[in-house]
Amino acid sequence: MIRKTLFATGLLTTTLLASTACSAQPAPGKPFKETMVSDFDSPWAMTFLPDKRMLVTEKKGQMLLVSADGKSRQTVATLTVDSAGQGGLMDVVLAPDFATSQRVYFSYSTAGEGGKGVVLARGRLRPDGGGGTRLGEIEALFSARPFVEGNGHYSGRIAFSPDGQYLFFTNGERQKFTPAQDPKMTLGKVLRLTLDGKPAPGNPLVAKGFAPEVWSYGHRNLLGLAFDKQGNLWEQEMGPKGGDEVNLIKPGLNYGWPNASNGSNYDGSDIPDHKPGDGYEAPKVFWNPVISPGGLMIYSGSMFPQWKGDAFIGGLSSKSLVRVDLNGTNAAKGDQWDMGARIREVEQGPDGAIWVLEDGGDSQGRLIKLTAK
Predict the structure, then answer these.
(1) Is 168 in contact with 158 (CB distance < 8 Å)?
(2) Exposed/middle/buried for 163, CB within 10 Å: 0-12, 13-18, 19+?
(3) Helix residue spans in the chain (DSSP H)
(4) What is the C-alpha end-to-end distance of the chain, expressed in Å?
(5) Helix (H, G, I), strand (E, B) or coil at 301
(6) Whole-prediction pTM
(7) pLDDT tens, 8-29?
(8) CA-CA distance, 154 to 169, in Å (whole number)?
C-alpha cells in the first residue's frame, strides 16, 4: 500500500492512494464478495458514525477517523496506553445519544499501582478549529480492580443496554484464573455500569458481597459483547486449550471459569466439563478445537436477509469468520469461512454489508468489506 501524508493546520491526515482500495473480488466458496478498503497498523476495533465515516482504534494508542470510502484518515486522538502483549487501545463505541452529545466510549490498558489493568474512558468528537476533528474532553470512568502483573486477558469490550441507560463492560481474568470467582474483584466478570462509569443500581450480586459493578462472573477472556433485537445479551470468550464459548449472559449467574470448561489447561491437565447440576451456566455453543474468537456482531441488516439475527465472530488463530445461528435464547454453530488472516473485529455497515478488520499482528491489518454476490 502507498500512503501520501499531508500536514495542515497541525493535523496529520493520511490519504490512501488508489492502489489501496481494490474492486470487489469474488471469494471462492464464500457467499460474499470481498473488497479491501484500507490498511492499518494492528487495528483492534471500529465503529460507524451516522455520516458513514468510521472510527478505528490501533493497538499502540491511535484513534483514527476514516472516510466512508477508506481513502483518507486523520488521527483524532493518541492515547497513552500499555500495548505490551495483548494490551493497547481497544474497543470504541458511540454513546447512545451520540447525535447530540458527540460522546465516544473506548477502552485501553494501562500500567499503575500493582501492575496493569483495563480502563473505560470517554471523550467528545469535536471540530478542531482547523478543518479537522479531534477527540477532546477525555476522561477515565472506570478501572478494573485490582491491577495485576502480566500482559494478557484484558478483554475491554463495551455494549450499551437497548434502552441506552446502562453500559456493560468486560473485564478479563488477566490469566490469573481464580479472580474470576473472587467476589471482591472485577476481573473475570461482565459489569453493568451507569453511563458515568459508576455501579448501576440494582446489580444482582451486591447482597452476596460482590463488587457492586458485577453482573455475571466466572469468565475468562471476554472479547465480544452484543445485544440482539430481543434484548438478550450475548458474549463470547476464549477458552484455554479448547472450549471457546458463546454465552447468553444473565444477571447474577456463574459461568464456571476456572472450575468448569469444555477445554483443558495448557499443561494438559483436565478441567471438569460443564454438566447439568454443577452450579455453573453452560455455554450455548463451544468449540474444540478453538476458533480464538475476536469481535462479536449480531446482524440486523438487509443485504444478507438469510442471516438476520445471527451472530458473527472474528476468528484469530482460526483465521476465519464464524457465523452462529441465534434462535431466541438458543444458539447453534453455522458457517465458518476461511479468511486467510486473523480477524480481530466484525461490524455491520450502514448499508448492511459486513466489515472485518484483520489483526495486524501475524497477518495484515486490512479493513475488508463483505457484500452480497
Answers:
(1) yes
(2) exposed
(3) 98-101
(4) 26
(5) coil
(6) 0.93
(7) 333 444 444 333 444 566 566 8
(8) 11
Number of other residues whose CB lies within 10 A of the CB of residue 16:
21
Tell me phi and psi for residue 261, to 5 degrees.
Answer: -165, 150
Predicted local distance difference test score (pLDDT) of residue 361: 74
List, as one string, the DSSP characters of 108-166. EEEEETTEEEEEEEEEEEEE-SSSSEEEEEEEEEEE-SS-BS-S---EEEEEE-TTSS-
List of residues 6+ apart from 116 with CB closer than 8 A: 82, 87, 109, 110, 147, 148, 149, 150, 151, 154
Q: How confident is the model at residue 322 (pLDDT cuts 50, 70, 90)?
A: very high
CA distance readout (Å), 348 to 5, 48, 196, 231, 232:
29, 9, 27, 18, 18
- Type of residue found at 357: L
Q: Cell 482460526 appears where?
A: 318
Q: Hey, what's the cell of 8? A: 495542515
Question: Which residues have CB under 8 Å from 163's CB, separation 6+?
Answer: none
How are strands ordered across the β-sheet holding 189-193?
A: 155-160, 167-171, 189-193, 214-217
Catalytic residue positions? Answer: 153
Give the angle 259-260-263 at the CA atoms, nearest 5°. Answer: 120
